[in-house]
Write a structure and sequence with these properties.
This protein is mainly alpha-helical. It has five helices and no strands. It is about 75% helix and about 0% strand. α1 packs antiparallel against α3. The N and C termini lie far apart (about 55 Å). Its main location: mitochondrion.
Amino acid sequence: MALDPADFTRCCKDSGILMVVKCRKENSALKECLTAHYNDPAFYEECKMEYLKEREEFRKTGIPSKKRLQKLPTSM
C-alpha cells in the first residue's frame, strides 16, 4: 500500500518530538516517492525546461518569477 507524501507531514505534526520513532514508515514512503521522481528522465526534462524558461524570462525582464506571479497593486 503506497502512502501519500502528505502522510509524513501529518504524522510529524501529530507526533511532535517523537516523530523520529513514530513516522519511520511514512518517511520511507516519502523517500521512495522522491527517489522515483529524481530517477525519472521525463520528470528531469520537465523540470529542466521549466527552469530554462524561467531563466530566459528573468534575463529578459530582470524580475524573478515569484515577483512576476504576484498581483500588482491597483491604484484607487
